[in-house]
Amino acid sequence: MTGEEKALWLDCDPGHDDAIALLLALFGRSSLVHPTLLGVSSVHGNNTGHNTFVNAARMLDAYGVEPGLLWRGADVPLMRDAKIDEGIHGDDGLGGVTGLGTQTDEGVQRQMYANLGPVAEKGQVVPEPDPLSLVSHLVELLKRRIRDGQGPLTIVATGPLTNVALLLKLAPPGVVQQGVDQIVLMGGAAGVPGNRTPLAEWNILVDPEAARIVFSYPLPTVMAGLNITHQALFTDTLHSQLVSLYSSSDSLIDTLASIMAFFAASYADTFGFAQGPPVHDFLAVAYVLDPTMFYAHAKPHQHTSSSSSSSVGGGSGDVARVSPKRYRVHIETNDGKACGTTIVDFYDQWAPPTESSPDQVDSEETAASWREGGRNAIVLEHVDTERLWPLFFDAVKRAQAHVQSQTNTQ
Ligand SMILES: [Ca+2]
């Protein structure tokens, strides 16, 4: 199986679905893309910045990852007070999850302190939030990759966009545009209700100003919102399939099963989801691994469009599909009942007068066209779940083999 090497950065707020997104970022691969996860940063969101950081360290420890990936970012939104989401993710952000270390365990401590060196010896239990060090590290990483002629980094963001917005605002001109190819985020809701207000989705609601900065930046932004994440439900059948992979030689499957079981109960209680919880954040990483899973069947009149249709699979009998579309997306930042809403201009009612036809704009590749006022985001609208879950189980098996190989060598 061949695939393009792809450098990733994951900014997250674990969070049950973040934990699954992290699994895919670490162990996922497709026939198209072999990702390398270069770093993980934590942000406030599903719980306090303290707890999301500790949770990221606990998950990295559970996945048997060599310490050195984790950075602690912002604890608070750019302009607002922090919120937490105990109702969905439990008291500490990973409620009900079994088999994880605590913040004082050696393995978790090593994950938390790997980038801070001797500070750990001063007796601090958990490092302080340090978004400036995170941004400095990212800028240096991007500069180094640009200088060495390495491929661009893809940033995947599965929490509030505070850290990403800080990077975009503080990095020297050109570094992000040269060093990052796209920002793929879980957030927003395209044409469907929100989940934390009638209109707004949580990640955008928590820091709408940061979201506006990201959606206004002249770089491709891909939005995996509730409209698509609610199409990918982790059903009882999938849960049974996961449990069937149980091995007595490691506890990883138990941990993953407990993540999905708690999330299923939360979604049943809070939102009445009877068929299973949506795996939200997982989809953002899945898009990077295989964008063709997010192609839609072409409508008859779209078969002749050369700008956006392609056949998936390569055979002559393949169904023509169209890649996800770009739309103008406005982030509502005014206080009021619509704050945090992602307004998607599906019918080009806001299109600037210079953009005469959708095809012309779709083919437009200038950086400026991604700014606010242009068609500034690719909005995911379809997902082929029959291809999505094999990606998940493949990553689970790789993770399980990795954890077992470490156990065997200890
Ligand atoms: Ca998240």
Give the class-level CATH name of the largest domain: Alpha Beta
Please state the second-level CATH architecture of the largest domain.
Alpha-Beta Complex
Identify low-pLDDT runs: 303-307, 313-317, 356-363
Number of domains: 2
The span between the termini is: 31 Å
Biggest pleated-sheet summary: 8 strands, mixed
CATH fold annotation of the largest domain? Inosine-uridine Nucleoside N-ribohydrolase, Chain A
Please, how many helices?
A: 15
The rough form would be described as: globular
| Helix share bin | 25-40%
**Secondary structure category:** alpha/beta
Number of strands: 13
GO molecular function, one term: uridine nucleosidase activity
Pfam families: IU_nuc_hydro (PF01156)
InterPro entries: I/U_nuclsd_hydro_CS, Inosine/uridine_hydrolase_dom, IUNH, Ribo_hydro-like
Organism: Acaromyces ingoldii
Structure description:
The chain is α/β, with parallel strands linked by helices and 410 residues long. The chain folds into two domains: 4-294 and 325-409, Alpha-Beta Complex (Inosine-uridine Nucleoside N-ribohydrolase, Chain A), CATH 3.90.245; 297-322, no CATH class. The protein is built from 15 helices and 13 strands. It has helices at 16-27, 49-62, 86-89, 106-113, 131-147, 162-170, 175-179, 202-206, 208-216, 226-229, 236-243, 252-271, 281-289, 358-362, 385-409, and strands spanning 4-12, 33-42, 70-72, 153-157, 180-186, 221-224, 296-297, 309-311, 320-322, 325-327, 329-331, 342-344, 377-379. It has an eight-stranded mixed beta sheet, sandwiched between helices. The protein has a three-stranded antiparallel beta sheet with strand order 7-9-8, with no helix packed on it. A hairpin with an 8-residue loop joins β8 and β9 (320-322). α2 (49-62) packs across α4 (106-113). The chain starts with a strand and ends with a helix. The structure holds calcium ion (CA). Residues 8-389 form the Inosine/uridine-preferring nucleoside hydrolase domain. InterPro entries: I/U_nuclsd_hydro_CS (IPR015910), Inosine/uridine_hydrolase_dom (IPR001910), IUNH (IPR023186), Ribo_hydro-like (IPR036452). Belongs to the IUNH family.
